[in-house]
Amino acid sequence: MNMIYARRKPDITELGVSLVFIGGAFFSVRNIPLAALAMAPFFSVFCQELSLARIFKKPDYTPKSGLSAIAHRIMAAGNRQVGGSAPLANWLLLIASLFSILLLYPSRKEHNSMVISRILPVAATDFVIKHNISGNMFNTYHYGGYLIYRLYPRQRVFIYGRTDIYPKPFITEYREMYRGGGNWKQYFYKHNIDYVLCESLSPLRQLLLNNGDFKLVFDDGKHSVLLKDTAKYQPLIKQYAPGLQTHDMGSTALSSSNESEG
Fold this sequence. Notes:
With 262 residues, the protein is an alpha+beta fold. It is 60% helix and 8% strand. It is built from 13 helices and four strands. It has helices at 2-5, 12-27, 32-47, 51-56, 66-79, 85-119, 122-130, 144-151, 168-179, 184-190, 203-211, 234-249, 256-261; strands at residues 137-139, 195-199, 214-219, 223-228. Strands 1-2-4-3 form a four-stranded mixed β-sheet, sandwiched between helices. The longest helix has 35 residues, at 85-119. The chain is elongated, with a radius of gyration of 29 Å.
Protein backbone atom coordinates (compact mmCIF):
# COMPACT_ATOMS: atom_id res chain seq x y z
CA MET A 1 0.00 0.00 0.00
CA ASN A 2 2.84 2.41 0.75
CA MET A 3 4.10 1.90 -2.84
CA ILE A 4 0.68 2.84 -4.19
CA TYR A 5 0.28 6.06 -2.19
CA ALA A 6 3.91 7.22 -2.23
CA ARG A 7 4.85 10.16 -4.44
CA ARG A 8 7.50 8.13 -6.28
CA LYS A 9 6.27 5.05 -8.09
CA PRO A 10 8.26 1.80 -7.75
CA ASP A 11 10.69 0.80 -10.50
CA ILE A 12 10.59 -2.58 -12.21
CA THR A 13 12.98 -4.21 -9.70
CA GLU A 14 11.08 -3.05 -6.62
CA LEU A 15 7.75 -4.05 -8.11
CA GLY A 16 8.99 -7.38 -9.48
CA VAL A 17 10.72 -8.53 -6.28
CA SER A 18 7.71 -7.55 -4.19
CA LEU A 19 5.24 -9.39 -6.42
CA VAL A 20 7.39 -12.55 -6.47
CA PHE A 21 7.60 -12.72 -2.68
CA ILE A 22 3.95 -11.80 -2.19
CA GLY A 23 3.02 -14.60 -4.58
CA GLY A 24 5.25 -17.00 -2.67
CA ALA A 25 3.54 -16.02 0.60
CA PHE A 26 0.12 -16.80 -0.89
CA PHE A 27 1.44 -20.12 -2.23
CA SER A 28 2.76 -21.33 1.14
CA VAL A 29 2.54 -19.95 4.69
CA ARG A 30 6.20 -20.80 5.29
CA ASN A 31 7.18 -18.09 2.76
CA ILE A 32 5.55 -15.23 4.72
CA PRO A 33 8.59 -14.49 6.96
CA LEU A 34 10.88 -14.57 3.93
CA ALA A 35 8.56 -12.15 2.10
CA ALA A 36 8.60 -9.80 5.10
CA LEU A 37 12.41 -9.79 5.20
CA ALA A 38 12.76 -9.24 1.46
CA MET A 39 10.23 -6.39 1.37
CA ALA A 40 11.33 -4.58 4.54
CA PRO A 41 13.90 -2.34 2.71
CA PHE A 42 11.31 -1.31 0.13
CA PHE A 43 8.77 -0.66 2.87
CA SER A 44 11.12 1.65 4.78
CA VAL A 45 12.06 3.62 1.65
CA PHE A 46 8.50 4.20 0.52
CA CYS A 47 7.25 5.00 4.03
CA GLN A 48 9.43 8.10 3.93
CA GLU A 49 7.60 9.28 0.84
CA LEU A 50 4.03 8.83 2.03
CA SER A 51 1.89 11.96 1.98
CA LEU A 52 1.02 11.49 5.66
CA ALA A 53 4.68 11.60 6.65
CA ARG A 54 5.29 14.73 4.60
CA ILE A 55 2.30 16.45 6.19
CA PHE A 56 3.47 15.73 9.72
CA LYS A 57 6.91 17.14 8.93
CA LYS A 58 5.41 20.58 8.28
CA PRO A 59 6.09 22.80 11.31
CA ASP A 60 2.93 24.84 10.80
CA TYR A 61 0.60 21.81 10.69
CA THR A 62 -1.06 20.74 13.94
CA PRO A 63 -4.25 18.68 13.62
CA LYS A 64 -6.83 19.46 16.29
CA SER A 65 -8.70 16.17 16.68
CA GLY A 66 -9.19 12.66 15.45
CA LEU A 67 -6.63 10.03 14.47
CA SER A 68 -4.46 12.64 12.75
CA ALA A 69 -4.02 14.49 16.06
CA ILE A 70 -3.11 11.29 17.90
CA ALA A 71 -0.57 10.31 15.23
CA HIS A 72 0.89 13.81 15.26
CA ARG A 73 1.38 13.77 19.04
CA ILE A 74 3.08 10.37 18.88
CA MET A 75 5.48 11.50 16.14
CA ALA A 76 6.19 14.80 17.92
CA ALA A 77 6.92 12.99 21.18
CA GLY A 78 9.27 10.67 19.37
CA ASN A 79 11.24 13.63 18.02
CA ARG A 80 11.89 15.25 21.41
CA GLN A 81 15.41 15.17 22.79
CA VAL A 82 15.73 13.41 26.15
CA GLY A 83 19.19 14.77 26.85
CA GLY A 84 22.05 12.81 28.38
CA SER A 85 19.70 10.31 30.04
CA ALA A 86 18.92 8.57 26.73
CA PRO A 87 21.95 6.20 26.71
CA LEU A 88 21.35 5.25 30.36
CA ALA A 89 17.65 4.60 29.70
CA ASN A 90 18.51 2.44 26.70
CA TRP A 91 21.02 0.39 28.67
CA LEU A 92 18.59 -0.11 31.55
CA LEU A 93 15.90 -1.22 29.12
CA LEU A 94 18.30 -3.64 27.44
CA ILE A 95 19.47 -5.12 30.77
CA ALA A 96 15.87 -5.51 31.97
CA SER A 97 14.91 -7.26 28.74
CA LEU A 98 17.86 -9.67 28.93
CA PHE A 99 17.16 -10.40 32.60
CA SER A 100 13.50 -11.16 31.81
CA ILE A 101 14.53 -13.52 29.02
CA LEU A 102 16.95 -15.36 31.33
CA LEU A 103 14.23 -15.78 33.95
CA LEU A 104 11.54 -16.96 31.54
CA TYR A 105 13.64 -19.14 29.24
CA PRO A 106 13.93 -22.31 31.41
CA SER A 107 10.20 -22.53 32.16
CA ARG A 108 9.19 -21.67 28.59
CA LYS A 109 11.66 -24.19 27.19
CA GLU A 110 10.27 -26.96 29.41
CA HIS A 111 6.70 -26.05 28.52
CA ASN A 112 7.46 -25.93 24.80
CA SER A 113 9.26 -29.29 24.99
CA MET A 114 6.21 -30.88 26.59
CA VAL A 115 3.89 -29.45 23.95
CA ILE A 116 6.16 -30.53 21.11
CA SER A 117 6.50 -34.04 22.55
CA ARG A 118 2.72 -34.48 22.48
CA ILE A 119 2.54 -33.52 18.81
CA LEU A 120 5.83 -34.78 17.38
CA PRO A 121 7.75 -38.05 17.91
CA VAL A 122 10.59 -36.60 19.99
CA ALA A 123 11.19 -39.70 22.15
CA ALA A 124 10.65 -42.08 19.22
CA THR A 125 13.23 -40.19 17.18
CA ASP A 126 15.62 -40.25 20.15
CA PHE A 127 15.19 -44.04 20.17
CA VAL A 128 16.01 -44.27 16.45
CA ILE A 129 19.12 -42.13 16.88
CA LYS A 130 20.29 -43.90 20.04
CA HIS A 131 20.15 -47.32 18.39
CA ASN A 132 21.37 -46.10 15.00
CA ILE A 133 18.34 -47.52 13.20
CA SER A 134 18.56 -47.06 9.44
CA GLY A 135 16.90 -48.31 6.29
CA ASN A 136 13.83 -47.48 4.24
CA MET A 137 11.55 -45.65 6.65
CA PHE A 138 7.81 -45.14 6.48
CA ASN A 139 6.65 -42.14 8.49
CA THR A 140 3.43 -40.30 9.14
CA TYR A 141 2.94 -37.30 6.85
CA HIS A 142 3.08 -34.55 9.47
CA TYR A 143 6.18 -36.06 11.13
CA GLY A 144 8.23 -35.53 7.98
CA GLY A 145 9.60 -32.04 8.59
CA TYR A 146 10.61 -32.84 12.16
CA LEU A 147 12.27 -36.09 11.10
CA ILE A 148 14.27 -34.26 8.43
CA TYR A 149 15.41 -31.82 11.12
CA ARG A 150 16.52 -34.65 13.44
CA LEU A 151 17.72 -37.36 11.04
CA TYR A 152 19.05 -35.65 7.90
CA PRO A 153 21.36 -36.45 6.13
CA ARG A 154 21.79 -40.04 7.32
CA GLN A 155 18.11 -40.92 6.93
CA ARG A 156 15.58 -39.94 4.29
CA VAL A 157 11.91 -39.62 5.14
CA PHE A 158 9.10 -41.31 3.24
CA ILE A 159 6.95 -38.17 3.00
CA TYR A 160 6.78 -34.66 4.46
CA GLY A 161 4.66 -31.53 4.29
CA ARG A 162 5.54 -30.34 0.79
CA THR A 163 2.93 -32.47 -0.93
CA ASP A 164 3.16 -30.28 -4.04
CA ILE A 165 6.50 -31.93 -4.93
CA TYR A 166 5.07 -35.47 -4.94
CA PRO A 167 3.19 -37.06 -7.86
CA LYS A 168 -0.50 -37.46 -7.19
CA PRO A 169 -0.38 -41.30 -7.43
CA PHE A 170 2.24 -41.35 -4.65
CA ILE A 171 -0.03 -39.31 -2.34
CA THR A 172 -2.88 -41.69 -3.12
CA GLU A 173 -0.69 -44.67 -2.23
CA TYR A 174 0.40 -43.05 1.02
CA ARG A 175 -3.19 -42.42 2.09
CA GLU A 176 -4.15 -45.98 1.21
CA MET A 177 -1.27 -47.36 3.27
CA TYR A 178 -1.75 -45.08 6.26
CA ARG A 179 -5.51 -45.65 6.49
CA GLY A 180 -5.28 -49.39 5.91
CA GLY A 181 -7.32 -49.33 2.72
CA GLY A 182 -8.01 -52.25 0.45
CA ASN A 183 -4.65 -52.06 -1.34
CA TRP A 184 -2.49 -51.05 1.63
CA LYS A 185 -0.39 -54.21 1.58
CA GLN A 186 0.34 -54.00 -2.15
CA TYR A 187 1.54 -50.40 -1.88
CA PHE A 188 3.41 -50.81 1.40
CA TYR A 189 5.52 -53.81 0.43
CA LYS A 190 6.26 -52.30 -2.96
CA HIS A 191 8.46 -49.70 -1.20
CA ASN A 192 10.57 -52.28 0.71
CA ILE A 193 9.99 -50.56 4.06
CA ASP A 194 12.41 -51.55 6.84
CA TYR A 195 10.91 -49.65 9.76
CA VAL A 196 7.91 -47.50 10.56
CA LEU A 197 7.57 -44.38 12.72
CA CYS A 198 3.91 -43.47 13.21
CA GLU A 199 1.22 -42.64 15.78
CA SER A 200 0.28 -45.25 18.34
CA LEU A 201 -3.29 -45.18 17.00
CA SER A 202 -2.32 -45.44 13.34
CA PRO A 203 -4.36 -48.09 11.46
CA LEU A 204 -1.22 -49.17 9.59
CA ARG A 205 0.57 -49.88 12.87
CA GLN A 206 -2.02 -52.42 13.96
CA LEU A 207 -2.25 -53.99 10.51
CA LEU A 208 1.50 -54.58 10.47
CA LEU A 209 1.46 -56.09 13.96
CA ASN A 210 -1.42 -58.36 13.01
CA ASN A 211 0.43 -59.34 9.85
CA GLY A 212 3.33 -60.51 12.02
CA ASP A 213 6.37 -59.38 10.04
CA PHE A 214 6.88 -56.09 11.92
CA LYS A 215 7.63 -55.88 15.62
CA LEU A 216 6.91 -53.03 18.00
CA VAL A 217 10.12 -51.87 19.71
CA PHE A 218 9.10 -48.44 21.01
CA ASP A 219 5.83 -46.89 22.15
CA ASP A 220 5.27 -43.95 24.50
CA GLY A 221 1.51 -43.93 24.22
CA LYS A 222 1.49 -41.43 21.35
CA HIS A 223 4.21 -42.47 18.91
CA SER A 224 5.57 -45.88 17.88
CA VAL A 225 8.55 -47.46 16.15
CA LEU A 226 8.15 -50.80 14.38
CA LEU A 227 11.01 -52.82 12.90
CA LYS A 228 10.80 -55.38 10.14
CA ASP A 229 11.46 -58.85 11.53
CA THR A 230 14.77 -59.39 9.74
CA ALA A 231 18.23 -60.46 10.85
CA LYS A 232 19.74 -56.96 11.12
CA TYR A 233 17.11 -55.85 13.63
CA GLN A 234 17.06 -59.02 15.74
CA PRO A 235 19.13 -57.62 18.66
CA LEU A 236 16.70 -54.69 19.09
CA ILE A 237 13.62 -56.86 18.57
CA LYS A 238 14.78 -59.36 21.20
CA GLN A 239 15.59 -56.56 23.63
CA TYR A 240 12.48 -54.40 23.31
CA ALA A 241 9.71 -56.26 21.51
CA PRO A 242 8.54 -59.01 23.92
CA GLY A 243 6.96 -56.81 26.60
CA LEU A 244 5.55 -54.24 24.17
CA GLN A 245 4.26 -56.90 21.79
CA THR A 246 2.35 -58.78 24.49
CA HIS A 247 0.74 -55.62 25.80
CA ASP A 248 -0.10 -54.26 22.38
CA MET A 249 -1.68 -57.34 20.91
CA GLY A 250 -4.23 -57.35 23.69
CA SER A 251 -5.11 -53.66 23.42
CA THR A 252 -6.47 -52.45 20.10
CA ALA A 253 -7.59 -54.73 17.30
CA LEU A 254 -8.96 -53.96 13.89
CA SER A 255 -12.18 -55.45 12.68
CA SER A 256 -12.06 -58.65 10.72
CA SER A 257 -13.25 -56.73 7.66
CA ASN A 258 -10.11 -54.58 7.72
CA GLU A 259 -7.93 -57.64 8.06
CA SER A 260 -9.65 -59.29 5.12
CA GLU A 261 -9.02 -56.14 3.08
CA GLY A 262 -5.27 -56.61 3.73
